[in-house]
Amino acid sequence: MAQPTAPSGGSAPHHTQSGRGSDTAWASGGTLFAGVLLFVDGVLAVLNGVVGIAKDNVYTHVGNYTYQFSLTSWGWIHLAIGVLLILTGLGILRGAPWARALGVGMAAISVVANFMWLPYQPIWAFIAIAIGVFVIWSLLTDHARHPAR
Description:
By secondary structure, the chain is mainly alpha-helical. Helix content is 66%, strand content 0%. It has helices at 22-54, 71-94, 97-117, 122-141. Helix 1 (22-54) runs antiparallel to helix 2 (71-94), helix 2 packs antiparallel against helix 3 and helix 3 packs antiparallel against helix 4 (122-141). The radius of gyration is 20 Å and the shape is elongated.
């Protein structure tokens, strides 16, 4: 099957044989960006966790919230998730085959944890949820690195 060519003097969008076009380029670049985002999100989660463990009065205490834990417990939760996010992000950046599946799982765990963390830090939790959703999308839509068998 012949590849589409651009008319002289113009440029056509990049098409692949599968017809995915520029979506593949976005997802492929997004995968590397997802690795960086997981790493950075992990570092920030570790810092968030250390603060929660060290000082119990840094974050605002909420009233009756369904998912209420002590701030020290939240600190340990963020610390553990952060370390796993860092390792997963490094794995994605190195191209480890296990890291993509673990990245989707860890991003999903991060989204749920940040949803539960919303009353304590609503702006950062919302940003972290958006990052997690982007990471999941980019890791699940990049088929360029692992062609169908």
